[in-house]
Structures are given as structure tokens and as C-alpha cells.
Amino acid sequence: MHYAAVIQIIRNHNRLNGARFSALEFGVGGVLCLGLAVLFGTDGAPLYAIAATGIAANTVPVVWFAVRAGEPDVGFRAMLRADVRARVLRDIPTAQRDTYILAGVSLLPFVVVGAVLVGLRRR
Q: Which of 60, 15, 8 is nearest to 34 (CA)?
């Protein structure tokens, strides 16, 4: 996938969900992952620290584009209306696929947290 396509997926996500919501959603996820990276680094788990740092770094473009967004948002609340969803799918035919891609990438921090919790429980 070309980087321009990824940027467009991010911009569409931010526009459809609302730039403020996207910045907050990914900003919190990034900060939590940075906290995990520090925890792992000080606990002698460098591979987990590197993974958590990478995930945190992956949140930066979403926050960056959300903060710099200049186009009007559709917003999550509006997406609950059938007419808005139909218009969005007409305007952005790949919206559902893009959502799956971004959601899959976004769930990685939770997988890391789950792995940590399982690892801590086994101690």
C-alpha cells in the first residue's frame, strides 16, 4: 500500500469520526503505549519496550492529521443517521475497508496490554 493511500485513510477516518475525537482517541492510546514502553524498559523487557514504542509512534500521524485538519467533520454522531452513512459510502466507497484497516491497527495496543497482563499473571 502506497503511503499516500495510508494518509488518505487517516484523513478520511478523522473527517468521519471528528478531528477532536480522533486526536483524543489516538493521543491517549499513544501516551498509554509510551507509558508501557517505559515500564517494559525499566523492567528488563526490551522487546516489549520496542513494540510499545513502535505502536505509540504509529499513533502520531493520526493525531498530527487530526490537529491539522482544515476540512469540516462529519462526526460520529452524524454517522448514526442512515442518510449520512449512504452519502459517505457514495463519496468514499472504500470507507468500510479503510475502517477495518485502521481498526485492526488501532487494536494492537490492546493486544500488547493483554500480553503484559498475561505475562504478569504468570510470574
A: 60
C-alpha cell at 122: 504468570
* Closest to 35 measured CA to CA, from 53, 51, 17: 53
Of 117, 109, 100, nearest in space to 31 by CA: 109
* Cell, residue 46: 526490551
Q: Is the Cβ–Cβ distance between 52 and 34 less than 8 Å? A: yes
Residue with cell string 449512504: 86
Say if pTM beats, i.e. exceeds, 0.85.
no
pLDDT along the chain (123 residues), means of 10: 77 85 92 94 91 88 88 79 88 85 74 79 77
In angstroms, rounded to a whole number, what is the distance separating the alpha carbons of residues 6 and 4?
5
Q: Are 33 and 112 in contact (CB under 8 A)?
A: yes
